[in-house]
Each structure stands twice: as C-alpha cells, then as structure tokens.
Amino acid sequence: MPELATHPTSEDFTRVPHSALSLTTPASESVFFFSIFVYILRREIDISCSQIPTMLRSAAICVVLVGACLGQSPTPQPTIGPLSGVTIQGSVACGVNVTGNTTGSSATGLVPQAGSPSPEDFWTLNVPSTQLYTIDTCGSSYDTHLHIFVLTGTTAAGAPILGEQVSTCDDCGPCGVRTVLQAIRLVPGNYVVVVDGFGGSSGAYQMGVTCTATLPPTQPPTTPEITIPNEALELFQLSCGSNVTGNTTGGLELVNTSSFSSAPEHFYQLLVTTTGYYTFDTCGSLFDTWLHVYRVASVTPTGGFVLGEQVDSCDDCGACGTRTVFDDMLLSANIYVVVVDGYASSSGVYTLGVTCGTSPPTDTPAPTTPPTDAGSIPASMVQGDLNCTSSVSGNTTGAPHLIDTSPFSSSSAPEHFYTLTVTTPAYYTFDTCGSLFDTWLHLYNATLVGSSWQLSTQFNSCDDCGGCGTRTVFEDVPLATGAYLIVVDGYSSNSGVYMLNVSCAATTPPTTSSPTTPPTPSAPPTAPPSTVGSLPASVINGSITCGQRVNGSTVGGPHLIDTSSFSSSSAPENFYTFTSTGGAWTFDSCGSL
Predict the structure, then answer these.
(1) What are phi and psi of 437, to 5 degrees?
(2) Residue 307's beta-bridge partner residues?
C-alpha cells in the first residue's frame, strides 16, 4: 500500500488498488477532510477487501474503519440499522411458502446490491433451534437477490433494525437467476429475510423455506477432541465466491496442531452440497497466515461444532508468500470449518477468498496458430470501451457463449466483450488478477460493420499466462493503431466475477535486466495540493479519531467532489474530519456494501 508523505489528494485515493488507504500524516494540528469516494468502491476496489457480490454495487452503505496508528484495524461488521417506513410483509418459518410482488414497493435500495436499486420486501424469521435453512425463490418471475440479516429490534415506530448480515447471494442455487440460499446455518434468534432484485429487477415472487437438522457425523472427532463453541463461529458463512475480512487479534486459540503456533484464530462454516474443487486464499492479509480445514464430526446441543478429520493444514502454501493459499482442494459433500490462523503468534487483519469449480485444474497451452475469420459479435453485447488506464469489473455468469476458437479448450464458458481503440502504437498489458475464477483472455483485430464487430485475426489467446496463476495476464502486447476486441472468457465452463485492468507503455520493448544502481526515491512534494473548493460545515458527518469505526450511508448524500480526471463521477459522498498529530494512519472501507 503506498504511503503518502503529505496531504492526500483525490488522485492519491484513486490510485490505491485496495479499499484500504495507508498514509503518513505530518505532525501538525491541521484538520483534513476525508471522503470515501463511491467510485473507488465501484471501480478500484480489490477482491481482498470485501465480498464480491457486494463489491459491484453502486452508491451504497459505507463502513469506514479508521485503524490504530500502527496499522491494526477492528473487524468490520456490516449492518443496515433502522429502516424507517418499511412494512414487514409477514413472517416465514420452516415449511412455509409465501408469495408477493416487489413492483411498486415503498422500500427501494435500502439494502444495496449490484446494479441499480431494486424494490424490496421484508419478512421476519424466528429460529427456535439451530438448523440448516434453505430459502428459495425458484418460482419467481424475475432475477431475485436474497439477503438474511439479524433482527436486532424495532424502533418506537415499529421499523425493523437490521444488524449483521448472515448471508447474501444473487443467482445462487439450481434455479438460475431465481436465487436459492442453500443450507444456511442459523442459530436461535430473530432474522429478516429480504427479497431483492438484481439491477432494478422487480415483480412477482414465490419464496419457500425449508430446514433440516444439521448433518450427522461422518467420522470420529479429532484426538484430543476440538470443539468450536457457537459463539466462536463467525456469523457470515462461506460459500463459492465469498470474500470476507476480519481481525484475529484478541481471538480465541482453539486449534493448536503445531508446536510453532500460539496465534489466535477465526472460524468459518462452509457447507459443501456437491463435490468440487475449492481454493482458499488470504493474499490480501496483513500478517503471516496459516490455514486449516476440518470436516465437522458432530454438532453440540448449543450449536457448536466438534471437529473431525483435518482435511489440510498449511503455512505459506501458494503464490502469495506468507499469505497462505490452498489451491484446488477436493471437498466432498459435508460441513467444514475453515480456520484462519497465524504462524507462531502472528495475528491481525486478514482477507479470505473462496472460489470453487467442478473440474480439476488443467494448465492448457494457447493455440500455436492463431485462427482467422472468427466471426462476429453483435455490438449490443459489448460491455464498454477500454483505454490505456481502464479498470473494469463484471460477472460473466449467465452471459452468452460465443467464442470457442481454441482446439484445446472444448470451452462452454460465457464471455464478456470490450472494445479497444489504439491511436498510438504501444505495449499493452491486460490482467485479470483480481478475478474469482479461472480466466482466459482473447484479443482480436476487429472492424465495426453495421451493428456487429467483425473479428479477423486472433492477435493473442492464452489461459493461465502471467504471474497470477489461473487469472490470466497478457503482458506487454505490442499493438499497432487500430480497433481491437478483448474477450474475458473462462477455462472450460468457468465463469463468475472478474476484474480487468489495462495499462500501456511507450513503444519501447520491456527490459528484464535490473538497473545497475537502485533508483533514487523521489522526494515527497513540499507544497500542499491545490485547493479543490470548500465544503459547508453542515455536510460534515462527524469527526473520527485513531481506532474509531463509523457507519453511514452515502445514498441521498450530496455530490461535491469530482476532482479526478478518471472519475466522471456523480456519486454522493460522506465527509469526516480528523486531526493528525503525526504517525502512520490506515483508513479502510472493507465492510462496505
């Protein structure tokens, strides 16, 4: 994370590739304005920081975490708070099926999600005992999105107060875009189920609720027996595509399988319903992580887990150095506990990402002879135009499958398409490093003819190229002036959330030789940034201090900041003041929705 030696400008914020900002402030009593720009959350956020389904959301509820001056950050706890004027549709329980229609609902965009705000309906759910709940909207007429929140109470006017988010997903389960939340473990308490829509969708829905007792033990417990009490389990439950963040400092130490480890741990439930290959990575973490995966042997009467077979345990595995990665672990149907641990006594802020697939990974070479005359792509299917500094994200799941040019692929993966117009010859790099699936990139010469892009020469095509494992990178591709089409594809049938970053350099071939002398770091600027305007004191949301966490919502806020040439932003903002007395500060919005 870059450190800024003087007052941060909007340019400094937009350059940071994560949604956590580290900066060093001068020892002064000056007061600075600090704004988390929504376009950072939407365009620049890195997957190591927040859940990808929420990463792609537009103007949203914002959680700003101001870490301690030595870089420690408290664990973000996503909450919504009171929902004024919301009508509860009714209550649901095991075995109950309900119907409704969100079109015209008075509640719209109260629970932020991907795309445009959608109307929502709210249902209460009382859980008398710990069980696995499945909530499905299979018979609905539109693209549904489901959320489950803890119900922490009601206001004097009867409005529900939503606490921590237990689960959220769009298009999960076997019913396509009609979301199914499968086997969500809920402990006794009151919850709110939110029937939402993707990208402004609404309409008639059907929702069914079923529940079963937790899975029976499949093997004996560990020796000596390890029990994870219910209160030690993280409330958010892992699934394919999850990205969570937390802080193990001050946590319990329950798993101690190595004489080297005395570090505190965090514990997550993962329910696997179909055998598949799972990858767990902690690449964005701030300490030396150690991961363990256990099968669950049995469930205690109070909802805790007795651990069974240890499926795997590793420190420093994978491509992220001391930030452990489990690659393509074969897991059969069962309940598992994933343990985020630290080497020796290491602890701190971590990120944990989960991806999965049904096929074993295979490194597939790119075709040796580029095919020609590859066909055409309707212009209506192009996601957008790229340039030398583009960073875009999307989700190929459910998109059409039009490209199958490689004799090695036998691919049925859906694709997204982008155009690129090169006006000056340069070396281009395209990377999908932040993506959540095994990506494959193709690059074509293209010509717009009528309403279609005609593809001619396939300039490049590769799976697993570059330094990001199965997240493909094209490095330093020499492109002449002309029009091109870049295709974000997946290996085999892989699809999901991706990030595509573009950069370019002058027409000088890249050199791999190291300089004979180390570069001299540039001195920090001595002059403060130029004035970007003034803010009325009435728009300030509050003052923050070292170690403080604040919550807020930018929805409906003013739009006053637009100083970046890259933003073209019309997003609303929140503003906070803080006073620096010197030291290194970390600001992160990891738990934002």
Answers:
(1) -150, 175
(2) 296
